[in-house]
Amino acid sequence: MRPAFDPWSPLFVAHPYDVYAYLRENEPVSWFEPTGQWLISRHADVDALLRDRRLGRTYLHVATHSEMCRPDDPAHLAPFWHVIRNGILDMEPPDHTRLRRLVSQAFTPRRVEALRPTVQRIADRLVDEFVADGGGDLIARVAEPLPVTVIAEMLGVPEADRHLLRPWSADICGMYELNPSREVADRAVRACEEFSDYLRGLAAARRGDPRDDLITALTQVDGLTEDELVGTCVLLLNAGHEATVNTTGNGWWALFRNPGELTRLRASADLLPTAIEELMRYDTPAQMFERWVLEDITISGVDIPRGSEVALLFGSANHDPAVFTDPARLNLGRAENPHISFGAGIHYCLGAPLARIELTASFGALLAKAPAMKLVETPKWKPGYIIRGLETLLVEV
């Protein structure tokens, strides 16, 4: 029987890899009627299409909705799309080229590298408190607060306001799931409005009282509009912590399921860099990214017309045996690991270096300070598929 691709099924979300294997072998390009998308499952195709300029995150730079035979945006979603389309993730050249260049003036490799001691300090403090309490929910106590705190400090969000960030991000990211409900959409719109107002106020304050933070740096970038500043900061929060949170939770769950590899990692801290890459590959935090077809294209022998939407299955590509030896095996020493968890092409994740710093700090601190950490109960997956992570991860130390 053909296994079902069902992103709303808890069983599928918990383990989609058997379905991926079937798709790669039998239907590498397959039509998925419930969302009106073409599913792309092989690594070679996904990697190539991420770099192919005949596809885009948006089509509005070359055509209107009606020209692409698509409905207009619902009026109630206007505040959401205004924020999202002012971030580089949902732009294409020439706007993407211009904005990424401007943002790179403030979000420099030097600024990111300078955060390393701060990241380590935050990770050590969170883990020390976690160990002192004997453990608990690793996601709520370590995985979530670390990247949110780092992004908040980098942006310059005052400590008293930082509790607002995670709920705003969670509500906005709900719109990235497949066929979101009106309730999810309304929460995302409200979060965009509230977060935008907050960022505009913070930017105005920094113009009058500059600080050593990214908000100040962005206000000083010539040519960057206030809407683009807001869109950039929203993207940095959402992309800058959701994937890191889920890589941490998914990664530790994978280690507990593979005790031999966990023992290997505990015995050799030198494995940590390759371990981080392997954990991102093994249980990819973002399972799918979508692209619009801007010109007629043929993928693995299947003709796909302009105006179609393709769903690039990152989780499947990262388990393709044509690229990864024994992909179902967690191998923390995997030397050749061309995973695409950070994307590829012009939309390659701007925050990848920071994510690696955060993951190395948190995994390293837990391995050093909680060497006997063990699982208390089998975790459950959140209902989301595209942004895939655990609800909780209860451990004791």
Describe, in plain words, how this protein is organized in 3D.
The mean pLDDT is 95. It is built from 17 helices and ten strands. The protein has helices at residues 10-14, 17-26, 43-51, 78-84, 95-106, 109-114, 116-132, 138-143, 145-155, 165-173, 182-208, 214-219, 226-257, 259-267, 272-282, 314-317, 352-369; strands at 29-32, 37-40, 55-56, 135-137, 288-293, 297-299, 302-304, 309-313, 374-375, 394-396. Helix 7 (116-132) packs parallel to helix 17, helix 11 (182-208) crosses helix 13 and helix 13 (226-257) packs parallel to helix 17 (352-369). The chain is globular and about 60 Å long. With 397 residues, the chain is α+β, with helices and mostly antiparallel strands. The longest helix has 32 residues, at 226-257.
